[in-house]
Write a structure and sequence with these properties.
- The protein is mostly helical and 278 residues long.
- It has one domain (2-277).
- It is built from twelve helices and two strands; from the N terminus they run αααααββααααααα.
- A two-stranded antiparallel ribbon has the order 1-2.
- β1 and β2 (80-85) form a beta hairpin.
- The longest helix has 31 residues, at 87-117.
């Protein structure tokens, strides 16, 4: 019994690791897999699992971007090594925190409302399609244009806060957190690579906070076997995220996000068909 649930967790981990960082909505994909391969565990486990599994994905970002995110640097002065704070990295973290504020505050206020009223298949399907169209429109509008911000280090407080405001949209399932922030950053004149990187960094406090809230809410009732299943899912999500993030960064250096827009539209239509059939 537990072996079968671990296999399911591995499949979910693969899906989470791929879809969390690509702007295609991990929630939409999770809904499809959950319809095909639901967990045979306690009530409420999946609601906790699909959020807490993000810990694995967060760890992947910390590993991949440690040199950019670690504010403590070493240098040799007079033949001696000393540790110093990188002002550039501290400023980057400050921009990340500023960008986190809108979703952090509003997320705490409407978390229960989202779970109760906005987690249905129809909502996810329509948001997938709507933002898929938005990606196509924005990418075509930006075609041939020069971006005003080409590095995450160039993002200032105003831009960070505005990108954070776009991240609030991702509280509605199906929007995609990375999709909302990348789309918002693109509209604000941030290059594709800088938009993707800043989206990754914004995910660290947001996903950590969301996962922590779910753990606090469900941990008292979680069984040991369910903890094992969750750990397998997080481990797989970590390793797959390493691959997915590298793929996305290599992809956007040569291509636009338009293809992800078409993919979202197709997935949204598939969800609508599943809703009508089942």
């Amino acid at each position: 019994m537990i072996f079968l649930e671990i296999i399911k967790a591995i499949l979910y981990g693969i899906l989470q690791g791929i879809t969390e960082w690509l702007p295609i909505s991990s929630t939409g994909h999770m809904i499809i897999l959950e319809r095909i391969l639901p967990f045979s565990l306690s009530d409420g486990f999946f609601d906790m699992f699909k959020v807490v599994i993000q810990f694995g994905s967060i760890l992947a970002i910390l590993v991949l971007y440690w040199n950019k995110l670690n504010p403590f640097r070493a240098r040799t002065v007079g033949g001696k090594k000393e540790v110093f704070l990188s002002k550039k990295t501290v400023r980057l973290w400050l921009m990340v925190l500023i960008g986190t504020l809108p979703a952090g505050v509003i997320g705490l206020l409407i978390d229960d409302i989202v779970d109760s009223f906005l987690s249905g298949v129809l909502v996810v399907a329509f948001t997938l399609i709507f933002y898929g169209v938005a990606f196509i429109v924005v990418e075509r509008r930006n075609e041939g244009k020069a971006f005003s911000i080409n590095s995450v280090y160039e993002i200032g407080p105003k831009t960070a806060l505005e990108i954070g405001a776009f991240q609030v949209l991702a509280l509605i399932p199906g929007t995609s957190r990375s999709g909302a922030t990348i789309l918002g950053a693109s509209i604000l004149g941030v290059s594709r690579t800088a938009a993707a990187e800043f989206s990754f960094f914004l995910a660290i406090p947001v996903m950590f906070g969301a996962s922590l809230l779910k753990l606090i809410k469900y941990l008292p009732s979680v069984l040991f076997s369910e903890v094992v299943v969750l750990l397998f899912g997080m481990a797989v999500a970590f390793f797959v995220s390493l691959i997915a993030v590298r793929f996305l960064m290599n992809f956007v250096r040569r291509h636009s996000f338009e293809s992800f827009g078409w993919y979202r539209i197709g997935l949204g239509i598939l969800l609508l068909l599943l809703y009508l059939i089942f």
